[in-house]
Amino acid sequence: MLLFLFWVLGEAAGATVYQRTIIGYSESNREIIAEQYGDGEDVIAILASIHGTEAAGTPLTIQFADYIWNNPGILVGKTIVLIHVTNPDGVVAEIRGNRNNIDINRNFPTDNFGRGIFNGEEPLSAVETKVLLTFLDQYQPDRVMVFHQPLNCIDFDGNSEELALHLSDVSGMRIKRLGSRSGSLGTYIAYQFKKEIITLELPSYASGKNADWLWQRYGELMIAFVTFPIEK
């Protein structure tokens, strides 16, 4: 069962809807939490720390949450959902995959899934991937961004090229196509879910930077990701 806290703050005309939901648990029974801001028609999801050794996206999503509270106008017509720590066991253990050494970002039920020591013997054999699949089914996001490291580029799958070009123009980051990886979230979102997906690859040195530096460098890109028009 999903557990949640639901808040509506502010005066009725300009209230900010906030919902904090435990969407599931890791193999070690750590909470996986989604924070929902707003309740508009356009649903946008941003996921950080899907690999435990690539955690620089987490302070960015936390900074973005603070930005939303201080700039509620960004929520007009939108629902923004943030998962600050998608792979809590991996972050705690400082390993790429989950407790069972399965890469939860290679364990989705895609047409190109290939079994392997890191991908898992079959799709959804990682409980965290099951949690994410349920999350996608529940929230039905129109657009997803997932943070990775260390390739320092913008990657995209499916019909997200126009969005990727816009983000590159805003940030100065290069676009580099990394390909549709076996069982990846990007592949699933683009080709099974048929929605927009951006993989934002931060550089390796981002892990040594503080939250303010990260926001100064990437905050405008995140805002552009949310405000770029969604075509339905």
Main-sheet strand order equals 1-2-3-5-4-6-8-7
CATH architecture: 3-Layer(aba) Sandwich
Average pLDDT rating: 92
Q: How much β-strand is present in the residues?
A: 15-25%
Overall number of domains: 1
State the CATH superfamily name. Zn peptidases
Largest sheet: 8 strands, mixed
Shape: globular
Walk me through the structure:
With 232 residues, the protein is of the alpha/beta class. It has a single domain, classed as Aminopeptidase, CATH 3.40.630.10. Helix content is 30%, strand content 25%. It contains six helices and eight strands, in the order E-E-E-E-H-E-H-H-E-E-H-H-E-H. An eight-stranded mixed β-sheet has the order 1-2-3-5-4-6-8-7. Strand 1 and strand 2 form a beta hairpin. Helix 1 packs across helix 6 and helix 4 crosses helix 6. The two termini are 31 Å apart.
SSE topology sketch:
Blueprint: E1 3-9, E2 16-25, E3 31-37, E4 42-47, H1 57-70, E5 78-83, H2 88-93, H3 127-139, E6 143-148, E7 151-157, H4 161-171, H5 185-192, E8 196-203, H6 211-227
Parallel strand pairs: 4-5, 4-6, 6-8
Antiparallel strand pairs: 1-2, 2-3, 3-5, 7-8
Helix pairs in contact: 1-6, 4-6
List keywords for this structure.
232 residues; alpha/beta; Aminopeptidase; 8-stranded mixed β-sheet; 6 helices; 8 strands; 25% strand; globular
Compact summary:
The chain is α/β, with parallel strands linked by helices and 232 residues long. Helices cover 30% and strands 25% of the residues. The protein has a single domain, classed as Zn peptidases (Aminopeptidase, 3-Layer(aba) Sandwich), CATH 3.40.630.
